[in-house]
Amino acid sequence: MHLSPRWQTSILMLAFLLSLMGLINLLLDPAQAVQHWQAAPGHVESSRIMVSSPEGHPDQTRWEPYVQYLYTVNGEVYHGDQLYAVASALPGDHSSAEDLTRRFPTGKAVVVYYNPQAPSRSVLIREGDSSIGSGRFILAALSTLFGWALCDRLLQRWRHVRRLRAGAHG
To answer: Among 23, 80, 99, 118, which residue carries the largest CB count within 10 Å?
Structure first.
C-alpha cells in the first residue's frame, strides 16, 4: 500500500508528537525520584540572578536564579547549585527569579535534599517548580489539541479517499 506524501507527513507529525510526549515524560521523571531523597543541613554560599539572551536574539531575555549552597552528609561537605530536580527549567521571568533569590539569601541556613546513593546530587526545593507544572499542563493541552487536529485531518482524508473509491466503482 502506497501512502501519499500528505499521509506520510500526517503520520510523521503524529509520531513526532508521541515521541515528544515520551521525551517530556522522561525529562520530568526526576522530579518524582526526589521525593525519596534525604534531608541534610546546609547554608547558602551565594545567591544572585543570572541574565542571559540566546545568541542572535538579544530581545529574548532570560532571568534565572543562581543559588550556590554547601551541605554536610556523614561528615563530608558537598557543594550544590541546583534548585529543582529538573535541571533545565522553563525560562523564568524577572520577578520569579527575584522571589527565589529572596527566598534563599546568602548566609541563610537551609535544608538540602540529596540522593542517598549519590550524595553530591542535591536540590533545595523538593517539590516541583510551579512553572514546570504549568509547562507540563500546557504541553499536554497542546499535544492533545495537535493530536485531535491530526486525527481529524486523517479521518477527513480517509473519508475523501473512500468516497473517491466508491465513486470510481459505482
So the answer is: 80
pTM summary value: 0.58
What is the residue extent of each domain of the chain? 5-29+135-169, 36-127
Q: Under CATH, which architecture does the 36-127 domain have?
A: Beta Barrel (2.40)
Selection from 103, 88, 98 nearest residue 63 by Cα: 98
Q: What is the pLDDT of residues 52-96, one digit of tens each?
A: 888 888 888 888 899 999 999 999 999 999 998 765 444 567 888
